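In response to the reviewer comment on reproducibility (Comment 2.3), we provide here a single inverse folding case reported in full, input and output, so that an independent group could reproduce the run without further information from us. The structure tokens appear first.
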């Protein structure tokens, strides 16, 4: 409980201290957001097609600029001294635009697929109860995709990984770091509640429009990014790090073996059998092991060392 209080305190201190910079980051992001939003608004008017397929399309084109927001809020979340908004925004965009464009396409398709599936199965369920099962599956898939995309932006701007490894690692973290993903969801929900409260309290349509613009342009992008990065970045940094050659737990177990733990007990704890440790495969691919994601080539070295310790002990006996 005390740790949670300290975390919340640190969250708000970091946010309030950098609030003016958050506003500037949002203003930078607002330029492409409004530009592409306007383009697809006029496309809807011109074509007469007021569909989600067109309405959601700006996501693809603005997502590369979200890389700049992500890099800035990541530094705020990890309490870095480098929080120069303009420099980080354009650095994030320049170095990650291509990957974030791919992320934008995949996110767009995922949102469209999940939205279409959930609404379709909900309507069908009203006439046939069996579709409630399909509706539940669609919701679970949507939640899994949501959890994956909590991690995708910050992992992309922080680590030099192949695209397939980014999604594989994020998929593992979606379930392996469920507590962090829950806190992100709670934080985003509270952000939505605050925005909805101001919207409902607005006395007229004009004030409601002002609230939408103020929150959508000046508050939501950097705040949502900060919430995600604050809760997922720290553990991600510990999990995926080139300097993290061995987990402390593995070291402890190998050391314990030297001090007399039975071979059978140790082999149960250091079970590499479930891992694909083929030395011919990509050594830089991350595999989930012992609560961490570690490169295949590092796991191979760890297995060899563990086996070497076992042979040494047997020779001594």
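Designed residues, in position order:
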């Amino acid at each position: 409980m005390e740790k949670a209080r300290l975390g919340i305190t640190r969250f708000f201190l970091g946010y309030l201290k950098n609030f003016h910079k958050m506003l500037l980051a949002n203003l930078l992001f607002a330029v492409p957001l409004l530009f592409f939003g306007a383009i697809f608004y006029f496309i809807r008017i011109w074509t007469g097609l007021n569909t989600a397929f067109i309405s959601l399309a700006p996501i693809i084109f603005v997502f590369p600029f979200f890389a700049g927001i992500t890099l800035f809020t990541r530094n705020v979340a990890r309490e870095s001294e480098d929080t120069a908004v303009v420099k980080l925004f354009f650095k994030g965009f320049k170095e990650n635009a291509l990957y974030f464009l791919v992320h934008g396409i995949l996110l767009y398709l995922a949102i469209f697929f999940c939205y279409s599936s959930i609404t379709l199965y909900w309507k069908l369920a009203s006439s046939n109860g069996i579709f409630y099962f399909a509706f539940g599956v669609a919701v679970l898939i949507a939640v899994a995709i949501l959890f994956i995309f909590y991690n995708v932006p910050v992992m992309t701007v922080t680590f030099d990984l192949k695209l397939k490894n980014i999604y594989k690692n994020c998929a593992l973290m979606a379930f392996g770091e469920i507590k962090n993903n829950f806190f992100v969801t709670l934080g985003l929900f509270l952000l939505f509640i605050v925005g909805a409260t101001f919207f409902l309290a607005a006395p007229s349509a004009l004030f409601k429009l002002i609230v939408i613009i103020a929150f959508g342009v000046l508050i939501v992008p950097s705040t949502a990014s900060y919430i995600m990065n604050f809760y997922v970045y720290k553990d991600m940094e510990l999990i995926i790090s080139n300097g993290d050659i061995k987990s402390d737990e593995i070291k402890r177990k190998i050391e314990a073996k030297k001090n007399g733990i039975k071979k059978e007990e140790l082999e149960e704890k250091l079970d590499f059998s479930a891992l694909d440790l083929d030395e011919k495969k990509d050594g830089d691919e991350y595999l989930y092991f012992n609560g961490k994601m570690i490169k295949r080539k590092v796991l191979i070295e760890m297995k060899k060392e563990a086996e070497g310790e076992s042979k040494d002990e047997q020779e001594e006996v």
